[in-house]
Amino acid sequence: MASILTSAIIVNTKSSVSTYVTTAQGLYDELQTLINNLTSSNFMGDASDGFKDFFNSKATPALVANLTEPGSSITAGLQSMLDSIKEQLLDTVDPQLGDINRDPTK
User: Fold this and answer.
1) What pLDDT digit, counting tens, does each position of 44-86 carry?
2) What b/e string do you get for 53-69 counting C-beta neighbours within 10 Å, with b at 16 or more?
3) How many CB atoms lie within 10 A of CB 86?
4) In the 3-class helix/strand/coil scheme, how is the chain assigned residue by residue?
5) What global pTM score does this model have?
6) What is d(CA 103, CA 97) in angstroms, rounded to the nearest whole number?
7) Among 75, 86, 95, 89, which residue's Cα sits nearest to residue 22?
């Protein structure tokens, strides 16, 4: 079944992506706080240091840089792509096609 892409759909999708980013960042902050508390009081030594290194070098890039970082993450790319679709297709092509459909002699 065909569907019609509208500016409202783009706006709603961008809002959903923003909600995802906010939620993911909040969960990451919560996880980071838990790890900091754990490794500063009850879990210490080389194993703790290795765990912190793993979290900072592997988990943090996966959770922050790749998912939520403004400008370079997957979600930032998605937001940019949605803006491009709206600007290049809906704001430009669609109105031109509408004008041509209204008056094919133009």
Assistant:
1) 889 888 988 999 999 898 888 888 888 889 999 999 999 999 8
2) eebeeeeeeebbeebbb
3) 20
4) CCCCCCHHHHHHHHHHHHHHHHHHHHHHHHHHHHHHHHHHHCCCCHHHHHHHHHHHHHHHHHHHHCCCCCCCCHHHHHHHHHHHHHHHHHHHHHHHHHHHHHCCCC
5) 0.73
6) 10
7) 75
Q: How far apart are CA 91 and CA 96, in angstroms?
A: 9
Rounded distance between C-alpha atoms, residue 14 and residue 35, angstroms: 31
Tokens of 48: 């703790």
- Provide the residue type at 47 as one letter: A
Under a CB-based contact definition with an 8 Å cutoff, are residues 103 and 96 in contact? no
Q: Tell me how long the chain is.
A: 106
Which residue, among 75, 85, 77, 100, has the nearest Cα to 25 in the 3D structure? 75
